[in-house]
Automatic annotation (TrEMBL):
Keywords: Acyltransferase, Signal, Transferase. Residues 45-75 are annotated as: Disordered. Pfam families: DAGAT, Hydrolase_4. One of its GO terms (biological process) is triglyceride biosynthetic process. It comes from the Eukaryota. Residues 162-241 form the Serine aminopeptidase S33 domain. GO terms for cellular component: membrane. This is Diacylglycerol acyltransferase.
Length: 699
């Protein structure tokens, strides 16, 4: 069980009784010696940069780090949640912070966060009611790869007011904004820390801030808080001493040692399921009960409950001044400090707000196994290093664990359809593999879009797993929208954003070509993906070329492909024409279409008839999916030639024709596949092993 080593950023702002702020620099933070290991946490002072004078003009310079962000997790085995720190680690390290001797609030940066990527933005973590600053301990490793993390530590004995804490954080924000004016500053606040973040943002509307509010304290449940206050007022002041003297319950005693050993045993065994995790956490809390008691003595709890009321009142009066973009992460099972009506009000009041509910999490979600904050930031496209999120340069590839999660999520579909992947070599031979696909970009894959995009998961996932080719799909902008009272849960589109989806636009296509990416493009778009009865395998491409000349500018290769099999897994029984005849469904379809927007608005062809709806499907006993990637069309050296619109149109029509030929080939050849249907495939795997590759038709 590793322990966190810390390096100091700088000590900040000791607040006197007269509210005068002075600079504080800490020389060291003592660490305890355990029976197994001895650690020392050194804290060095670094003088902060003071804000500039109000006069004068600062020249904005282009950031040298504004390039595509390399995947920081490509070699990280620790990108798995079972290797992250646990509640036991939090309590173990909090023990040293509780006994740090007091002093004013100060910043520290965990050494495990030191390897952040070049150009990473600053992340300031503002703690909840515990005040230790260790609330992100389970997330330090992953977040530390993409952020420069500073954590605020508020000692147990500190009595700095809410107002002065806001000033302390504000000083740091202004100082760092002056030092790096072109990068955003992230404020991650939990509970009362979220109130601090909102107040700082309200006081500094002109500073580029991004707020992540975890279980923001929006109100105090009087039904729970009044009995707690009453109990605290009648308790004697020396409860920690009484427990130690009367019951002999001290850190390091045989009883706590036994509980600690049990907690470690559960952690080592990696007991799966909710039961194993609950038992492990129960033993961890029991073993560190003296730490918890010293973390929340009576005087501190009374002080923080009063400060909490002040914080909520201050936020409610200042929230209309907040201009920062905000990501709110409310827990589904927090009934004490969280009010769902307040979250709805916040989401309507804050100008750029995303709410992502943590349905299965409780009071302290950051310490729970099921929450991965780095992944949530990726899924909400909330990571940026400049003035706005760039879907190309700010994208971070999924970790190996996240990729495996995506494959496991679609495992049932993969097993049901047993996909057959075919590609074409340079000599024209067809092989059953991805061998014929170019390794180096830029490459544009153009093909047929199945109903609801069922072909995407097997194709994108297997290509990344087997060839390490990462397809960046040009996607309808509705995937990235967060609309109040939307009929669609944005979490439905998580997989597209995690796997690198990019809003379709000419500029984004140009950027992807410039970065030599492998780009997945469906010219038929929504009209093809939401086709109607009898339109299986029909292409709805625009009449004029839209991508050939841009691709030729970068010498790209165009890979046409076809895919068949949707008619073997379901029938469309209720399409958009049918739903228009049902008043309720008609209204829902029209609202969804309006919310999503029509990228082909004004197009008088069938392509402009883009209804957004959920088709009624009746499943069949699943057949098989077949993919066929044709021979690449090389555009290298043809930029001047393809400036001619007619020449570009010829290449465009050639690509469309080859997609149609790929579809026709697969429809013909699948008739001779003895394993097209589910039962023969199951019998084959039963006799040859469930992991064996199932044969197909002769090539």
């Amino acid at each position: 069980m590793g322990f966190t080593l810390l390096r100091s950023i700088f000590g900040l702002c000791a607040v006197s009784s007269s509210s005068r702020v002075t600079d504080f620099y800490s020389s060291n933070l003592r660490r305890r010696t355990s029976a197994s290991k001895q650690q020392l946490t050194a804290i060095k002072s670094v003088t902060s940069t003071h804000p500039p004078p109000s006069r004068g003009i600062r020249r904005r310079r282009k950031n040298k780090d504004d390039k595509v962000l390399d995947n920081p997790y490509s070699k990280m085995e620790m990108a798995r949640p079972d290797l992250r720190k646990s509640l036991s680690d939090f309590l173990e390290e909090a023990r040293d912070f509780v006994g740090d001797g007091g002093g004013p609030p100060r910043w520290f940066s965990p050494l495990e966060c030191r390897a952040h990527a070049q150009g990473s933005p600053l992340l300031l973590f503002l703690p909840g009611i515990d005040g230790t600053g260790l609330g992100l301990i389970r997330h330090h490793k992953k977040l530390g790869e993409i952020f420069d993390i500073w954590c605020l530590h508020i000692p147990v004995s500190d009595r700095t007011s809410f107002k002065d804490l806001v000033k302390l954080i504000e000083r740091t924000v202004k100082s760092e904004n002056y030092r790096l004016p072109n990068r955003p500053i992230y404020l991650v606040g939990e509970s009362i820390g979220a109130c601090l973040a909102l107040d700082v943002a309200a006081r500094n509307p002109n500073i580029d801030l991004s707020l992540i509010l975890v279980n923001p304290a929006t109100h105090v449940n009087n039904f729970m808080s009044k009995p707690l206050l009453g109990m605290l007022n009648v308790l004697p002041d020396g409860i920690p001493t009484l427990l130690e003297d009367v019951f002999g319950f001290k850190q390091g005693d045989p009883l706590t040692g036994m509980l600690d050993a049990l907690s470690n045993e559960f952690s080592v065994q990696r007991m799966g399921g909710v039961g194993g995790g609950m038992l492990r956490d129960l033993f961890a809390v029991s073993a560190n009960l003296p730490t918890l008691i010293r973390m929340f003595p009576k005087e501190t709890l009374l002080w923080k409950l009063e400060m909490l009321k002040c914080a909520i009142s201050s936020v409610n009066s200042h929230i209309y001044s907040v201009r920062a973009e905000t990501l709110i992460l409310p827990s589904g099972r927090d009934q004490w400090l969280l009010n769902e009506e307040d979250i709805v009000r916040y989401s309507r009041t804050l100008p750029k707000c995303i709410v992502r509910k943590l349905d299965d999490n409780g009071q302290f979600p950051l310490l729970e196994d099921s929450l991965d904050l780095a992944t949530i930031i990726k899924l909400t496209c909330f990571y940026r290093r400049g003035k706005s999120h760039d879907y190309i340069s700010d994208y971070i590839k999924p970790t190996p664990f996240e990729l495996q999660q995506q494959l496991d999520e679609h495992r049932l579909l993969m097993d049901a359809i047993s996909p057959v992947m075919l590609s074409t070599l340079e000599d024209g031979r067809i092989v059953r593999s991805f061998e014929g696909l170019p390794s180096e970009g830029p490459v544009v894959y153009v093909g047929y879009h199945m109903i609801l995009g069922f072909e995407l998961a097997p194709m994108v996932g297997l290509l990344l797993k087997e060839r390490n080719i990462h397809m960046r799909g040009l996607t309808h902008p509705m995937v990235f929208m967060y609309i109040q009272d939307s009929l669609v849960d944005p979490k439905m589109f998580d997989k597209y954003k995690l796997m690198g989806g990019v809003p379709v636009s000419n500029m984004n296509f140009y950027k992807l070509m410039r970065e030599k990416s492998h780009v997945l493009l469906y010219p038929g778009g929504v009209r093809e993906a939401l086709h109607r009865k009898g339109e299986e395998y029909k292409l709805f491409w625009p009449e004029q070329s839209e991508f050939v000349r841009v691709a030729s500018k970068f010498g790209a290769k165009i890979v046409p492909f076809g895919v068949v099999g949707e008619d073997d897994i379901f029938n469309i029984v209720l399409d958009s024409n049918d739903q228009r005849n049902i008043p309720i469904l008609k209204d829902l379809m029209e609202k969804a279409t309006k919310d999503a927007g029509n990228l082909r608005e004004g197009d008088e062809s069938e392509l402009g008839n883009q209804d957004c709806y959920i088709p009624g499907l009746v499943p069949k006993i699943p057949g098989r999916f077949y993919y066929y990637f044709g021979k690449p069309i090389d555009l290298a050296g043809k930029e001047k030639e393809l400036k001619d619109k007619e020449k570009a149109q010829e290449v465009y029509l050639q690509a469309k024709s080859e997609v149609e030929e790929c579809i026709a080939y697969l429809k013909m050849k699948r008739e001779s596949d003895p394993y097209r249907h589910l039962l023969p495939r199951m019998l084959y795997q039963a006799s040859h092993g469930w992991s064996s590759e199932i044969p197909t038709f002769d090539l």
